[in-house]
Amino acid sequence: MARTARRPAPRNGRRTDYRVTFVVLCAGVSSFSLLQSMVTPVLPTIEAALDTDQATVTWVLTAYLLSASVFTPIIGRVGDKVGKERMLVVALLALAVGSLLAAVAPSVGVLIAARAIQGVGGGVLPLTFGIIRDEFPRDKVAGAVGTSAALLAVGGGFGLVLAGPIVEALSYHWLFWLPMIMTLLAAAAAHLFVPESPERQPGRINVTSALLMSTWLVTLLLAVSQGSSWGWGSPITVGLFVATVVVLPTWVYAEAHSDSPLVDMTMMRIPTVWTVNLVALLFGMGMYSMFAFVPQFLQTPGELTGYGFGASVTQSGLMLLPQTMATFLVGLWSGRLAARFGSKAVLVAGATLTSMGMLGIVLFHDHVWQLVAESTVLGLGFGLAFAALSNLIVDAVPQSQTGVASGMNANIRTVGGALGSAVLASVVTAGARPDGLPVEAGYAHGFSVLVVTSALAALVAVFVPVVRVATRSTADADLDEAVPAADPVPVAAR
């Protein structure tokens, strides 16, 4: 295993207090997570404002999904090699530039390009985990990783809550102006206060591997996200799936035989890593699909369909506010829970609660209070699982690979979300009414699929082996005269 590069000297002879660093990191994660979800509820508004059609406006979401899936692990890996602090600034500036371009976009084409630029900001999450592991005292790492990971789900929930009021009070342009301001402030604070990375992995960036990985991710996610509109049996959809089947194993082979892999296949085969990634895939199917379809269910006019509550975008967001708060509060407590019960137990509990919440929605959805209670249970599950997934990955890999390992885990969760949304869309819309609205049974069947995926996630989580990689905490180290760090050494499983 490669030894880490020489530690750079801290700015001004001293390192920033880790609590200041944590505030800056949370601001960056919050900005990215808000942009993930705020646009979804107002796509019809954007469609009308930019004089486009539904098929085209969906690319506002698809471009962001594709770009984030490609850049999340790449930016994380580059951060492992050249420095996490500088790549964090790059990722935040990309978010800001994309937000500025989106706010002033005169056409849907420009908006789609802006969303693709914003996707570069996906690297914020793995960089955040890497910086926490580098800078925080060992006993603070689990809580900080858990809270920052939960912020991704919290931001997604708040995005649904805030989208309606922002559009009604201002305009949809402010869905981009506000995150741009937040992101610029976070980028400036990151440059000023986040210490330079003390852990580096030497070697070149493998461009061929990056291109191969980008190709299979784009072909897979494009086929999955657009298959329902293009037709699952259409030549372009089938062709994309065939390309994925060809390029994915080619990428794995190239990485396994590279002297400077982008993603170390030996690391990906660590039992803890691949089982946690499988849980992330299954869990992502449920969480991201819930974000998309529960608001849609709440907004369905009950007087026409016999179900739903005819809620506005703002009202449906407020109905889901307890879920967001539950995720946030659990995220704050995740470190203590992991310290007492272990991250594996927390993950099992989170996936189980998610399955229970989904089952509740399938069985009881006739009253608003039922949906609020069930979505709150989901929020608890999301907060627990997000925190545990991230902590298990961070603990299982060498410090020099934290960024790329966390990036791949986040990416696999995103792939799961795309797969889940595609499956749910097909199930929910099967046998739709003449006016295009789904029948109630469509939602029940769709949410039943998510019950199964969440239960499978809980089952796989039971078999996750927990191995912690011992690392030297830079918060306790003398960094004035740095020396190369020794290779991390695995310690016994808990």
UniProtKB/TrEMBL annotation:
Entry annotated with the keyword Transmembrane: yes
Assigned keywords, A-Z: Cell membrane, Membrane, Transmembrane, Transmembrane helix, Transport
Matches recorded under PROSITE patterns: MFS (PS50850)
Topology class, membrane: Multi-pass membrane protein
InterPro entries: MFS, MFS_dom, MFS_trans_sf
Annotated Pfam families: MFS_1
Transmembrane residue ranges: 20-39, 59-76, 88-106, 112-132, 144-166, 172-193, 205-224, 230-253, 274-293, 313-333, 345-365, 377-398, 410-431, 443-464
Compartments where located: Cell membrane
Domain Major facilitator superfamily (MFS) profile: 21-472
A single GO molecular function term of this UniProt record: transmembrane transporter activity
Any one GO CC term of the record: plasma membrane
Entry protein name: EmrB/QacA subfamily drug resistance transporter
